[in-house]
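Margin note: ligand = 2-(butylsulfanyl)adenosine.
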Amino acid sequence: MAKTSTSEQSTAQEIEALRAELRHHEELYYVYDNPEISDADYDALLARLQALEAEHPELVTPDSPTQRVGGRPAEKFEQYVHRRPMLSLDNSYNIEDLRAFDERCRKLADGRAFEYVAELKIDGLSIALHYESGVLVRGVTRGDGRIGEDVTQNARTIRSVPLRLKEEHKEMEIEVRGEAYLARKVFERINAEREEADEPRFANPRNAASGTIRQLDPKIVAARRLDLFAYDVLAGERKPFDTHWHALDWLERVGFRVSPRRLCPTIAEVIAFCNKMEAVRDELEYEIDGVVVKVNSTALQDEFGATTKSPRWAIAYKYPARQATTKINDIIVQVGRTGALTPVALLEPVQLAGTVVSRATLHNEDEIKRLGVRIGDWVTIEKSGEIIPKVLNVVESRRTGAEKRFRMPKACPVCGGVVSRPEGEVVARCVAADCTAQLKARLLHFASRRAMRIEGLGDALADQFVQTKLVRDVADLYTLTLEQVAGLERMAEKSASNLLAQIAASRERDLPQLVFGLGIRHVGERTAAILARHFRTLERLGAATVEELDVIPEIGLTVAESVHDWFADEGNRALCERLRVAGVRTELAAGAEEITNEAFAGKQFVLTGRLETMTRDEARAAIEARGGRVTSSVSKKTDYVIAGEEAGSKLDKARELGLNVLDEQAFKALLA
Ligand code: IVH
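Resulting structure:
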């Protein structure tokens, strides 16, 4: 061996020390999400290492942190035959399927006790990572399960893939399998960048991840920030641990990320885990499409074996799909209460996340342009949470040429009024003061449960009021006579008088409901309550300046300007006056401001299960009237979970997070 000078020796030592330090910080950052140093400090260390390696190319090793940044673009990917095929999983879509899987496993186990491991099914793509003496030497995509593509350069760019295992296994050759994916935030960033560059958006994080791993230029891959959860380890064709649980522990120890998991002695526990994770699905930083259930014992796994496609010892429990493909039969334009024109796609009905979907919003003209959607197109639609379904992208391969372009109407499709779209705004609006579509939408909003709660004033009736011109604004409701209402089509005297009684009763609703019911832009239920409590009368709210509005905590400038503009309009001021004259309460109910109390102000509540003595809307109103907020999902930020009868997974999650859980009685005590 050639003699090395002391200076070379110390350079080699410095390089090794830098690498060790960088690896430590990478793990803290990418695996534990808990960095100790700033990004700038990390970059400085990396730059120092890069400089030293540039001076001493003979000292560069494949596991150096500098090797992540990506080398030269590849011409194409080489094929690679997997030592042991990368199988797929059988799917199950309901609890019965899971129980049937359990039955089969118990039969195969023939009386022997065993456990399951339940872990998240990450929605990405699987890759195999080969380590020799602890150093990453190869990354291969799943491909068709038998033959994949060698994407080593790209795999190196994934920061949660250790380039060197922290602890060597006694086996020299180790294969780690896992799911590469893009975090939601990263996915959104990539799509925003693509949009700016006029490139088509990716439909979902999975497509984006698989497009990324097959990118020939590793620099692009590095910039895209793929991530990885490891879920299996092999030594040659064998599994080197006695249980899957131990394998996952080892993976974590040597520097991989492993997704949330649970060791389950029974299928009932597996089901509980599935339900629990479904409830928190939207709060995860990555997309999951279900839970994977595996028999824990490696010996039993080997015994149960596999079909040509999938193992008999594992199953995927899939959550209801949130995306579907269907055809756009037509595009119509709806007019909202502020005159906003919203294009809506009428779809060939399709089953999605448990409901039949036949409409999806297209938001506005720019969105239609961005998507390039035409009438007759096949599209992917998505439904997440409680949001109305939206169109994600056009399936261009299914175009026939018969599709028709859609143009936003130049006139209001309902009243024929002028449509205006001011410079810089995305929304086109009908500006006609007497637009019947707007009036109808305003009436329905005013009468809705969370506003003035006029039961019985539904779509058909609102239509008739508007068409007959009996009602020209919401104040007209209070001067309707029995004769007028009973004279409407399909309206018996009894229901007419019921409706009038409802309208009369609505005079007593409190100021927050009235302010919300007016339908001022940007003023939702919560903002309305804040404004009402602050000003206490409609008159004082109407007289407030933008500055007076803007200084209120939780009221921003947009809301302040919108409220001010609304009351600056003469017609709106006249409307308020007529409501007051008609006997509608325009002052905060006595004492209402005092009921804001410590237990509620600024606190977050989640309602779950059925309450005996009040509806959800009433419970929500009671919380908000006291300055609290109601959110739909349980998180660390939740202060109280109100659990009624048959409370489900939200309650489980609350208990797990150690939150305050109140039953109905305790909740009522708190209200009182
Ligand atoms: S185990 C033989 N575990 O789901 C076992 N797969 O539908 C095969 N996936 O190809 C895979 N998360 O891409 C396993 N925790 C997990 C997973 C997981 C996601 C993917 C993987 C696989 C597909 C099967």
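The radius of gyration is 31 Å.
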